[in-house]
Amino acid sequence: MATDKFFWFRDEEFARQTLAGLNPHSIRLVTSKLDPSIYGPVESAISDEMINQEIGAIELTRPPMDGKPQWKQVYVPSWDSTACWLWRFVKTHVLAHDAGYHQLVSHWLRTHCVTEPYIIATNRQLSVMQPIYRLLHPHFRYTMEINALARESLINADGIIENSFSPGKYSLELCAVAYDLEWRFDHQALPEDLINRGMAEEDPNAPHGLRLTINDYPFANDGLLIWDALKQWVSAYVTHYYPNSSVVESDKELQEWWEEIRTVGHGDKKDEPWWLTLRTQQDLIDIITTIIWVASGHHAAVNFGQYAYAGYFPNKPTIARTKMPSEDPSDQEWKLFVENPEA
């Protein structure tokens, strides 16, 4: 059977990997209709009929920098040779930006970085015989060691990430800003995460109590199976050791553990109203299930496909070291692109 060696180059595979590849967590539902006024220099190339249809489009924006004004352009698929090559290049730029966000936010921040306060508080506040310590301990294995190695050679100044990923020297700033603007504990639970991103709606008649916006969305399809299994296991475990809410409230170690996570480990968000309280069995079940999900299912989704998808660099480039050929080109740059786009 013949094999398409350039399948990774096709729009279908680009779309499939966007949904089911390394970074399925950044997908959000956009409900507003496209405004024709945004199309700028390519407005004349997009008919009203195309705007009213559901078409694939990519907009690149460069903010004002180095004395240059903002630049932005919308690209659409085309059979015209020049536009076809621009479309291929713009997909590369999308992948490069996505790779930076994936590695620094979806992976490092959301699974490695924010898990540290859970681990530190677990070791400081819970004895090794405490039931919740014993439940959480296997899920924290090697995390601190891996994070230390990452700070030593991956996310360190002038390290691998800064040199070979699109955010460059702003990598950790991007991570910090994302934590400040986006991270909240209650949205780390998979159902709440999907709802928050517009990828699901509550529906008591649907599987897992959620109606998915995209039916074939592996992060949700597979993830919800894992989430439900985790929650069932955690529920059975917690209700065995904490048969009623008074036992939860009176467990001094447990209360100090949750207090440290909120007010010390995530101290800059300690006054946020969305923190879960820890008074009932259900509170404890929700907290523990969320922590375990982040360290297991969520991490698996954004980590274990890295070699399969990014081992071949053209399929998942982490950086684009040249601008788009249509971004303020000189006559010489445009001539080179038109005559030899492959170069």
Automatic annotation (TrEMBL):
Keywords on record: Dioxygenase, Iron, Metal-binding, Oxidoreductase
PROSITE patterns according to UniProt: LIPOXYGENASE_1, LIPOXYGENASE_3
Stretches of the chain forming a coiled coil according to its record: none
InterPro entries found in the cross-reference section: LipOase, LipOase_C, LipOase_C_sf, LipOase_Fe_BS
Record-level GO BP terms: lipid oxidation
Reported cofactor(s): Fe cation
Lipoxygenase domain boundaries: 1-343
Cross-referenced Pfam families: Lipoxygenase (PF00305)
Organism: Gossypium trilobum
Protein name listed in UniProt: Lipoxygenase domain-containing protein
GO molecular-function terms, A-Z: metal ion binding; oxidoreductase activity, acting on single donors with incorporation of molecular oxygen, incorporation of two atoms of oxygen
Protein family according to the UniProt entry: Belongs to the lipoxygenase family.
